[in-house]
Amino acid sequence: MRHIALFRGVNVGGAGKLAMSEFREMLTGMGFERVRTCIQSGNAIFDAADEPYQVAAKIVKGVEARFGFCPSVIMRRPEEMEQILRDQLFQDAPISALHIFCCSEDQMQVDRSAISALAADGEDWAILGRHFVLFAPAGIGKSKLAERLPKLLRGDVTTRNMRTVRAILDIALTNP
Q1: DSSP strand E in 9-156: where?
Q2: What is the pLDDT of residues 74-98, one digit of tens each?
Q3: Which CATH number belongs to the domain containing residue 51 in this structure?
Q4: What is the DSSP string of 154-176?
Q5: Number of domains present in the structure of the chain
Q6: Rg for the chain (alpha carbons), in Å?
Q7: Which of 19, 80, 87, 141 is the most buried if burial means most Cβ atoms within 10 Å?
């Protein structure tokens, strides 16, 4: 079964240092196959027989033992990522303005009025299953909504820009 592991807070601001070559080696040593990584922020694509929650638990335990920190890992299947690309409402928006917040919880429960109050003029958003899609034309770094959103969503949340989501999916759907 093909899996996508998305880490939260890896190789960001000097915290959670994780060399991707060593990480790939660790995953391969755990018995995962066709292991690939995408950029340095903790995105791994691989095959494993276990269910996603089992895979995540193994990865967390392995990273803690080998690298000395305990990351948040959010698992996805390639089909989920494909659905985000297919169903997101901002098909004509510049790719640089789109960001996907991936949530660990199966049911996304949000305070829509709080989110709307934080959205700047021109920003828009949508919920797709366990994903929150943010259109931030001025950039995610200037968005108060993007800054506060992880606290408004239940569970662990990690964010990827749409360009990275497409790159991860390209890897997931091809053979190494």
Answers
A1: 33-37, 43-47, 72-76, 98-103, 124-128, 131-135
A2: 999 999 999 988 988 898 999 999 9
A3: 3.30.70.1280
A4: SS-EEEEEHHHHHHHHHHHTS--
A5: 2
A6: 16
A7: 80
From 24, 43, 33, 11, select the one nearest 163 (Cα to Cα). 43
Q: Residue 162 has which token pair?
A: 């749409």
Q: Are 78 and 4 in contact (CB under 8 A)?
A: yes
CB atoms within 10 A of CB 169: 21
pTM, two decimal places: 0.91
Say if residue 125 is in the same domain as residue 165. yes
106 and 70 together in one domain: no
**161-164: Cβ within 8 A, 24+ apart:** 161/95, 161/96, 161/98, 161/99, 161/100, 162/95, 162/96, 162/98, 162/99, 162/100, 163/95, 163/96, 164/38, 164/39, 164/41, 164/43
